[in-house]
Amino acid sequence: MPIKKHLAVTSLLGASFAALGQNSFIVEDLKVEGLQRVALGAALTHIPINVGDTVDQYTISQTIKALYKSGHFDNIVAFRDGEQIIFKVQERPTIAGIDFDGNKDIKDEQLNESLEQQNIRVGEPLDKTVVDNIEKGLIEFFHSIGKYNAKIEMSIVDLPRNRVRLKLEFDEGDAASIRQINLVGNELFSDEELLKLVESQQDLPWWKFMSNDRYQKQTIEGDLEKIRSFYLDRGYLRFNIDSTQVSVSPERESVYVTANITEGDTYTVKGYDFIGDLLGREELIKSIIPLKAGELYNGSIVTSSEEFIKGYLARFGYANAEVRTIPEIDDESKEVQLTLSVNPGKRVYVRRILVNGNQVTADEVVRREMTQLEGAWLSNQNLERSKLQIQRLPYMEKVDFEVRPLPGVDDMVDVDFTVKEQPAGSFQAGVAYGSYGGLQFNVGVSESNFLGTGNQLAFNINTSKSQNVYRISYNDPYFTPDGISQGTSIEYSSFDGSKLGLIGYDSRQYSLGTTIGFPINAINRVNFGVRWIDEKLDYIPDYEQTRILRLAFLDPEDPDGAYNFTKYELSAGWSRMTVNRGMFPTAGSRQNLVFRATSPNSDLNYFKVDYDSRFYWPISNDHQWVFSARAGLAYGNGYGETNGYEQTLPFQEFFRISENELRGFERNTILPRAIQRRMTEIPGSTLPDGTSTSNIGGNSEFDILVPGGRIGGNAKATLGAELIVPTPFLDEDNTSSVRTSFFVDAANVWDTEFDVDRYSNLHEDQYKKLSDYSDPTRFRVSTGLSVQWISPMGPMLISFAYPLKKEDDDETKTISFNISNTF
Q: How far apart are CA 548 and CA 755, in angstroms?
């Protein structure tokens, strides 16, 4: 065997190879020794030498460089054995794990992301030459957030089978505070006025311990941009931040920030024009954008004009449009001519839309809400509308989308929609408790996304102290592909009014109904319905408000018998919805208008109209602070005559107040009272034979009034305002399932048919017992705090309320709550 030539060593990046001498030779064989994890084939792909090639010292040097560039090896040595070349390699160790200790300001996720940018990740080979760079980069980060005393120690622990574990230990130290921010060069605006714009705070006194004067480089940079925008929005086109210095105190606990600025003069917009392709819509865009000749230059208006043009073009598929404003400044006249350069680029089409995150809901249910279609051009308007419509579904908590360009293709993209579902119902068998309804038992299913189809199914048996309800309903929001909905319901209910503070009567009702809805557009919808109702009323007291009903339907042969009615109720409704999500919206509005009337062949002839609306206005950009207002109006009455008596709205159809419409009051306590008018009896005289002439009726002016329970009215108005605030001590993931708000509620129910003057001939003591129940201004008002939570066992509502305006006989309550296991 020929002896291997151990050649002179040439250094290359800390490794070496044995020199091959000055003479070239023809390679007959290649070998790579020392491979463990790297496959031989993978190593040979980085060797640009083949058997039969003529090589020399330069060729081998270039080969070693190529092997190092592969990133797999720490050390490489080349030997010549006859006409054979042997590469002896030492592979880089594999990273088996990465541990962090002591880091507070930098989360583990951020550290891993930073390391991955330098190809430092578990399972990959470790390049020890970048270790120092990692430490330097992390130290620079700590300096940027004001932690100048931070220390980092990185160690490498060797493990069997050429593996290592990286350990990063942090001693972050305390953050330096901003002792002073100095602005140099400002004459038009004072330091105090400019520093009001910035987020960074300086030299805070001890009593402002809730504030933060910590130095952060990014915050300072953002603050300087706010000052720049302040000047540009006021016409100072030549404003400039000449330099910024950050000085650190010797103990590294304080910093001093100095910004040198040049204010310049104000400039007026001389005019503006366009260059490039505006797709023939130049005049339309000119009429809409807020740029005006003759006005002071305003940087915000220029930026908003650019964004509007880009957004407008994106509606027609030009998603990558470029809009750039070129100023032509005349320093003598202090004017600027603006040229908006518009390059729409290529029209972009959607290849595929993917839906992710839906565990229960079928893809088809999500896709049918989309207005952005596959194969159509990409439209930002359709994407946002699709997101909004999906998010309005009651079983969707959050919706996001991402537009992904296709590699190597500049006119086609994929769109990924990611949804996060939330409970929209549940199978249940259990109990619920409320401060109004008391203990309730229920069994059944209530589901707004039945089997992931988006259809709504409800089967419920609910019992409480006042009523029993057995109901089955089903609604298909896409009965036809174009969005026509159809619903059906069957119900039996019984009701005892005396247990809810109402007049004492019993009601039993069977009903069967169906509805059909038609979409007008994306936000407007109309609905029509018909319902058959078989109703029985029993134990109806004789009150002023029930008098006409009793007279019209009283059976003379059985004056104490029950009343039976068959009603055919027709309904028509309009709804408008622009809210940004189905549950706990933070922007937009909901409006509903419903008209119901019984047909002329029904036993009772009446109509009811009910309007309800709610509006949401976000105060903060993150929608954590929201102002909400609501208003509702309702009215009903009878039509026609029955048995010679003019129809009125039946008392059992009177409007009432729900628990959420007026918090701080017992439910139904503000309703008009039922009034019973009794004739006064005057004892007769005693005859000589000892017998009596019995009692005789007195004059009507001596009648007495006996107030009864609450009965309701045929008109109703509700108002409310809420300030929705972030829920304390709640992480970001749960903000969409919990809502905290401060509220003001106002409500009134009145009876337009009630005539207080009808009782004016009563004795003064009796007349004082009356309130004018026809007065629409008798509002009750309350204020308080409300917390709503979509809990695992059902929706929970807790309210703390205080009445601001009430009447003497109103019953109030400070705390109300409801827990239910249905949605």
A: 14
